[in-house]
Design a protein that fits this description.
This protein has 395 residues and is an all-alpha fold. It has 20 helices and no strands. Among the domains are: 105 residues, no CATH class; 164 residues, no CATH class. Helices cover 76% and strands 0% of the residues. The relative contact order is 0.12.
Length: 395
């Protein structure tokens, strides 16, 4: 019974407060700017909660300290500006890098290139982009500083039209381990993938077949040889053979199951060399492609979203945002929060006061200002200060 009485009392207080606020705001805010501002702040509350969720995920999946998490948040907004992405989006990429075992600085570096990869391709998953880059880095024994070279090389080849970025990135992540062991460079591996894929049109067959071919050739020619150099030499022999001889040679050299992939490489060796050249001359290609994304509608929209999140984050500790965060309860709890938490809006007067000064509002009806001694409004000092200030300015 006491709970019912308390709930009824809270509802009555809420109704009275809302009625008196309506009277006050209709006097000082004839164009509804007060309500519009409150709606915008409510949206900021949502942005802050999204950021908080992203940071919580990062904290739970990494070994970052509190100070590192603060630094990561700042860097996330910087990367968001550079990559045309929202801060929460950037944090998901950093979290994926952290889950992959990288420290804070490595995670930031890897996230930057993974974001770029996402912008210039159809790889829109943070986890997938990080996994692709990590697989290539691990395969060739490189650190995160090499990640930009990966993006450049794949972009350089994909722009020739022989294979798209996503398909080549997938093949590279699968073949990197075998290619690194075979002693070849990133550019040589990408050239071999592109050359065979151009003939076969199947990256699963291409990557799987080339991995087996590399292993067979290492056994035949020894670990001291770069397998790419071996294949280059074999291509010269291939060109001098007739069709029956080629089939027998492919089967004996690459294995019966891989002779189709081997034949594709030999038949299109000029395509292989052309792709290697494109990859080798690709410095800065990913940045150029990324600039196209940044100038697109999607890029500009994401950049704007990042700015909104930065503003929301800046307000995270303000009394206004604390009010909205606390108001995000359900049912009667939200109504109770109005009467219990609106006293925290101490900064609202400063914000709205600046707006009114610029709009010159409230001057004509100063004398008809609603009474500041309304039973509910008298509880809130910021309303008293604000209205007194308006009278002083426009009185």
């Amino acid at each position: 019974m006491n709970n019912d009485n308390e709930e009824n009392s809270n509802e009555l207080k809420t109704d009275a407060l809302l009625e008196e606020l309506s009277s006050l705001t209709s006097h000082y805010f004839p164009d509804g700017i007060f309500l519009k501002g409150m709606e915008e702040l409510a949206q900021m509350k949502d942005k802050v909660m999204e950021l908080d969720s992203a940071l919580l995920d990062l904290a739970e999946t990494s070994d970052f300290s509190a100070s590192e998490l603060k630094h990561v948040t700042e860097e996330a907004f910087r990367l968001g500006d550079a990559a045309g992405r929202a801060g929460t989006d950037v944090l998901s990429y950093i979290a994926s890098a952290g889950k992959a075992g990288y420290d804070m600085q490595e995670s930031l570096a890897l996230a930057e290139e993974a974001l770029k990869m996402g912008n210039i391709s159809g790889i829109d998953s943070a986890e997938a982009a990080v996994e692709h880059i990590k697989a290539v880095l691990d395969g060739f024994g490189k650190n995160t500083g090499f990640a930009s070279t990966i993006n450049d090389a794949i972009t350089g080849i994909s722009q020739t039209g022989t294979v798209d970025f996503d398909t080549l990135a997938e093949g590279a992540s699968r073949l990197a381990g075998a290619a690194g062991t075979a002693g070849m460079s990133l550019e040589e591996m990408l050239g071999l993938l592109s050359g065979a894929y151009e003939i076969l049109g199947d990256m699963d067959q291409t990557a799987g077949g080339e991995s087996a071919i590399f292993s067979n050739l290492k056994e035949t020619y020894g670990d001291a040889r770069n397998v790419y150099d071996v294949l280059e030499e074999l291509s010269s022999v291939w060109n001098a053979m007739d069709a029956p001889s080629r089939e027998a040679f492919a089967a004996s050299t690459a294995g019966e199951g891989q002779k189709e992939v081997f034949a594709a490489l030999m038949d299109n060796w000029k395509g292989v060399e052309s792709a290697v050249s494109s990859a080798s001359d690709s410095f800065g290609a990913a940045d150029v492609a990324n600039a196209v994304y940044l100038d697109s509608i999607a890029g500009k929209t994401a950049a704007f979203q990042n700015q909104v999140e930065q503003l929301s984050s800046a307000l995270m500790d303000s009394d206004i945002l604390k009010f909205f965060l606390d108001l995000g309860t359900k049912g009667a709890g939200a109504l109770n929060a109005v009467t219990d938490k609106i006293t925290t809006l101490g900064t609202l007067g400063a914000l709205t006061g600046g707006y009114l000064s610029s709009k010159n509002l409230g001057r004509a009806n100063t004398d008809s200002c609603p009474s500041l001694n309304m039973p509910s409004l008298i509880r809130f000092p910021w309303i008293q200060v604000f209205c007194t200030g308006r009278r002083a300015i426009h009185g």
